[in-house]
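User: I'm putting together a teaching handout on how sequence relates to shape, and I'd like one worked example. Could you take 3-dehydroquinate synthase from [Muricauda] lutisoli, show the sequence you're using, and then write out its predicted structure as C-alpha cells right after it?

Assistant: Happy to. First the sequence, then the C-alpha cells directly below it.
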Amino acid sequence: MESVKSQSYDVHINELAEASLNQHVANRDYSKIFVLVDENTKTHCLPKFEKIFQHPIDAILEIQSGEENKHIHTCLQLWEDLSNLGGDRKSLLLNLGGGVLTDMGGFVASTFKRGIDFINIPTTLLSMVDASIGGKTGVDLGSLKNQIGVINQPEMVLIFPEFLKTLDQRQVISGYAEMLKHGLIQDKEYWEDLTEKGGFTDASCIQRSIAIKNKVVLQDPTEKGLRKILNFGHTLGHAIESYCLDNPDKKTLLHGEAIAAGMVLEGYLSHELRGLPKLSLDEIKKGFSKYFDKVDFTTDDIEAILQLLKYDKKNSHGNVNFVLLQSIGEAVTDVKIPEELFHKAFAYYKE
C-alpha cells in the first residue's frame, strides 16, 4: 500500500513500514536504540515488533497507560532513564503505543539533549489516524489537555493494522470518531462511506484518513490557519474529556468518546451560526449515535464544562475560538459563540 508523504517524513503501512524501518536504522549510526512501551503494548505489541525489527534494542522503557499519566512527572522519569542508560544526541527512541504514548514519547525525544530522533509506531486506531500526522507532541497540565508541548516531526511513522486486533472494541470505536471528523471537515463522500459501510479498521480507510489530515497539515504545519479545522469537535470535546477525567463522580471518557459528543454539540452551533442545514445536523447526530452512547450531563456538569473553555489552547486575546461546519465536508475557523447557544446545543444533544 502506498506511503503517505508528510512534511519531512513518510507514513508507511504494513510491508513498506517494516522494510523502511530496518533500512533507516541500517543507514544510521545510532549510538543507542530505546523502545518506549506501556504495560499493554509491552504484552501485546512488543513481541510482534521484535520479530519485525532486525536490530539490537538497548533498553525497553515502560510507562503506565492512560491519559492520567500524560504529565510532566512521567517525562521526568523518562529523561532520567534515558540519561542513566547512556542516551546521547545520537540515540533513537521508538514510541510503540497509542496517542498518549506517542505524544509524550515525541515530547521527551524532542527535549532530551535538545532533541533526539524518534519514530512513532501507533498501536491504536486513534493514534494511527490522528497522532501519526502533524508532529504535535506534549503532555497535559493537570487535567487540562495538551497544554505543554512542541511541534516536532518524527523520522517516520509506521502503521501496522495488525496491532488493532489487540484492542477491545471500545478503543477501536474511539479512533473511529477522528475518522468521521476527517469526513466532516474535508470529504463528504468519505463521511458517507464510513457511516453507511463501516470498515474503518481496513488499511485503505486508515490510509484515507491519514491522507486527509496530511493534506491539511502540509498546507499549514504550524496551525496559523487551515490546520485549525482539525479541531472540529475538540473545543467542547476536550473540555468534556478534562471534566470527566477530573471528576470522580463521572465516567472517564476515551478521547474519541468525548470528541464525538463535542462534534454533535458543535454541529448544532454550526446549524445556528453558519447555516449547516438541519438535515445535515440530524445526519451527524444519527451517524455518531450508531457507535457512541450518549453522555449524561447535568446542569452543574454543563456549567463546569463551559468554565473549562477558557483554558482551551486555541484561545486568543481572551476569546474562545470554534471550528464550525458550513456543510458536511466544509469547515470554517475562528467563530465566536454567544453564550446562550451553548445551553441550546446541550439541549439538542440530550434530545
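A couple of points you could highlight for students: DSSP finds 14 helices and eleven strands in the chain. The chain has two domains: 4-166, 169-350.
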